[in-house]
Amino acid sequence: MSKILLRRYLLFCVSLFVNALGIAFITKAALGTSPITSVTYVLSMFTPFTIGQWTIMLNLLFVIVEPFLMTRKDLKSDLRMYLLQIPISFCFGMFIDLCMHCILYWLNPAEYLHMIVALLIGCVILAVGIALEVKANAAMMAGEYFVKVITKRFHGEFGYVKLGFDVTLVAIACLLSLIFMSGIYGVREGTVVAALIVGPIVHFVSPYYNFLDKWITDPSLRQDIALQQNQHTIITIAREYGSGGHLLGEMLSKELGIKL
User: Fold this and answer.
1) Which candidate, 73, 232, 198, 50, places its Cα nearest to that of 129?
2) 71-98 confidence digits (pLDDT tens)
3) For residue 213, how many other CB atoms are within 10 A of its CB?
4) Residue 1 confidence (pLDDT) above 90
5) What is the pTM of this model?
6) pLDDT of 110-165, one tens digit each?
7) d(CA 120, CA 131)
8) CA nearest 33: which of 173, 137, 146, 161?
9) Alpha-carbon gap, residue 212 to 134, rounded angstroms
10) For 219, left (φ over 0), alpha (ψ -120 to 50), or beta?
11) Residue 40 burial (10 A CB sphere; 0-12, 13-18, 19+)
12) Which residues contact 217 (CB under 8 A, 6 or more apart)?
């Protein structure tokens, strides 16, 4: 394994822990939980298993279902990323329980204002973790990989499929809560807030990770990128007298913003 890839895996592991910490903050705010953990949180409320243990089980279920939605060629070409979901699922679930029961055991806000503050802090932490995960670009968590597989299988757009996936999870969480607890628990206004603001925060914080580029990018690749960025765009038009080539050049120059 190259040093660069090892660094990317290290960043990804850090992002997993940060994501788990953000989810724990959101959940401990007692205003619901993030959409991706809504089902596992509701299941943990009426079963002996924790939210982290249910997260592992649900993610492994995604891993089992994915091959049925993939072609043999796709699975073979993406086998490393597919198999990485298994250890990632275990790590993510354990990190969530560690944050919930060990690191944030003291966080039990009673007043609504304190709940809102905890929720917002959790959303920021989760967004920071997601942005770091994207920057690492080393692996994918099972939920995201499952969305990717569905997108490719049905030729959809990742953003819309991800939205539909999150809405489906929240709907299943509400249904489970109604059936087993005779009311809607674990899905509240905090779930909606997390769904709405985490994405914009990710876009806001992502540029601040650019300082990691030198650390996780191969030096030769960095040189190629720098050369590409410094190259000038030149368009040459071969023409004959009276063909209108010069006029065409003026039109292109104006349209593209390139000096003639």
Assistant:
1) 198
2) 999 999 999 999 999 999 999 999 999 9
3) 11
4) no
5) 0.83
6) 999 999 999 999 999 999 999 999 999 899 999 999 999 999 999 888 889 999 99
7) 17
8) 173
9) 12
10) alpha
11) buried
12) 4, 225
**Rounded to the nearest 5°, which phi and psi values hold at 25?**
-60, -45
So where are the chain's domains? 3-217, 220-256
Quick: pLDDT tens for 46-57.
Answer: 999 999 999 999
- DSSP 8-state assignment for residue 36: G
Query: In a 3-state reduction of DSSP, which class is residue 187?
Result: coil
Helix 38-46 vs helix 51-69: crossing angle, to nearest 10: 130
Look up residue 208 and give its amino acid: Y
End-to-end CA distance of the chain: give it in Å, rounded: 49
Task: List, as one string, the DSSP characters of 118-159.
Answer: HHHHHHHHHHHHHHHHHHH-S---HHHHHHHHHHHHTT--HH
Q: Please say whether the beta carbons of 145 and 64 come within 8 A.
A: no
Residue linked to tokens 């724990």:
24
